[in-house]
């Protein structure tokens, strides 16, 4: 787990030092830093994620690289849907909601079209990878 945390920490640092842009395998893809509240611990958890813009909301994918289980951040936002989001140089409060089963398949196909790695994640696992919409809280 420490290895993943170190890897995430490097991406987060690069994101914050470069106005929300990162290189490597994520270069050219929209990135967000998602802050959730730990379902068991109540502590803040921070994860860099690729997202898909969708009007006034952003869409994130609980792919975990095609692992057999959902990522911890997904369980955290189910327990507490209030999140903080960093996009580019902006930070705002949002509410996270899993999308409907019908909407999920259409959205996931769009994500695969722009970032084919998500198709590979889907092929590697037997679970249906959840898609979550985050909407900005009103002021």
CA-atom Rg in angstroms:
14 Å
Low-pLDDT ranges: none
Strand order of the largest sheet: 1-2-3-6-5-4
Order of helices and strands: HEEEHEEHHE
How much helix is in the residues? 25-40%
Shape: globular
Taking all residues together, what is the mean pLDDT? 92
Main β-sheet: number of strands, strand sense, barrel status? 6 strands, antiparallel, barrel
How much strand? 25-35%
Please state the oligomeric state of the protein chains shown. Answer: single chain
| Overall number of strands | 6
How far apart the termini lie comes to 37 Å
Number of helical segments with 4 or more residues:
4
Q: Which structural class is indicated by helix and strand composition? A: alpha+beta
């Amino acid at each position: 787990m420490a290895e993943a945390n170190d890897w995430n920490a490097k991406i987060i640092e690069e994101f914050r030092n470069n106005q929300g842009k990162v290189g490597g395998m994520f270069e050219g893809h929209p990135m967000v830093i998602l802050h959730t509240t730990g379902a068991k611990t109540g502590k803040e958890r921070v994860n860099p994620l690729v997202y898909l813009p969708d009007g006034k909301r952003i869409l994130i994918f609980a792919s975990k690289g095609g692992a057999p289980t959902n990522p911890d951040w997904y369980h955290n936002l189910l327990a507490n849907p209030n999140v903080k989001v960093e996009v580019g140089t902006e930070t705002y409060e949002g509410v996270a909601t899993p999308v409907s089963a019908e909407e999920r398949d259409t959205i996931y196909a769009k994500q695969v079209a722009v970032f084919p790695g998500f198709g590979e994640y889907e092929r590697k696992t037997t679970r249906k990878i959840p898609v979550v919409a985050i909407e900005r809280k009103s002021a």
